[in-house]
Specification:
There is one protein chain. The protein is mainly alpha-helical. It has one domain. It has 13 helices and no strands. Helix 1 packs across helix 12, helix 4 packs antiparallel against helix 11 and helix 8 runs parallel beside helix 12.
């Protein structure tokens, strides 16, 4: 019961600071490109160039065969775009408090919003990526199914999972600096253990349950279900329940750990 009160108080505090979170997100996004000639345009130039390179390499150089009757570049982009968001958001949010250590000693400031600011700042780029993939589908003459609306559901699922993980990693890294390296290494394992470059149907049936233990697999395949396979998320009831069970666990644990460790941040920093 005590942990529930800690969790509830933490969430209520963050909700009361929602306007501050939005303002700091805007400033964080802007500060990344401060001093460059193109400024914030770089945020949109990078994904445009990357998607163009993917399209050129896999369509004209490798001449990759379609996967499940879909051009390989569309199939790949549908999986790699949600991965980029997860990878960049968690890596950035893990160092959110260390990078803003000068704020920690300000008693009136709600430190818990710092990881969220990094998540929402990365979200801006992800939304542009999503727009790009819809454009790619149109250019290739591939129909955009009604199922694509549930991309918003999988995006929300990503944000909830990332919020819990970022609270956990950003608070622990202050006391255990190797956490940053562990997160980077863990993301590498997740990248190759998630069906991004390879179809999940290549996995032998006996090993498939172990691959599906990875919550990122649920998100990546969810984007493909929405854009390519035309499958609703409730058609995978057990995997959906498992994902939200894991996500709920990290969300609550992350919030409680962050709240418990927060009074000691200033002493260590």
């Amino acid at each position: 019961m005590n942990y529930f009160r800690v969790f509830s108080a933490f969430i209520a505090e963050l909700y009361s600071r929602r306007q501050l979170i939005l303002e700091m997100t805007r400033r964080d996004f802007k500060s990344k490109y401060l001093g460059s000639y193109l400024g914030m345009l770089w945020a949109f130039v990078h994904p445009t160039v990357y998607i163009t390179i993917l399209w050129f390499v896999f369509s004209f150089v490798f001449k990759s065969k379609p996967v499940q009757d879909v051009p390989y570049v569309l199939w790949l982009a549908s999986g790699i775009i949600p991965w980029f968001f997860f990878n960049d958001a968690l890596a950035s949010a893990t160092g959110a408090i260390l990078d803003n250590s000068f704020i920690v000693k300000k008693v009136a400031f709600s430190i818990g919003i710092l990881p969220l600011v990094r998540l929402f700042s990365t979200l801006v780029i992800h939304l542009f990526f999503l727009a790009m993939i819809f454009v790619m589908f149109v250019i290739n003459g591939s129909p955009i199914p009604i199922h694509s609306v549930q991309v918003l559901y999988y995006l929300a699922a990503s944000l909830v999972l990332l919020t819990g993980l970022s609270w956990l990693t950003s608070s622990v890294v202050i006391f255990f600096r190797d956490m940053g390296q562990l997160v980077a290494m863990g993301l590498q394992f997740l990248f190759w253990g998630t069906p991004i470059f390879w179809p999940i149907n290549l996995v032998p049936e006996k090993y498939l349950p172990f691959v599906k233990l990875n919550p990122v697999e649920y998100i990546v395949e969810g984007y493909r279900d929405s854009l390519i396979h035309k499958v609703w998320f409730w058609e995978h009831p057990w995997q959906t329940l498992y994902f939200w069970g894991v996500t709920g666990f990290f969300f609550v644990v992350g919030a409680v750990v962050f709240r418990r460790l927060r009074p000691h941040f200033a002493d260590v920093l």
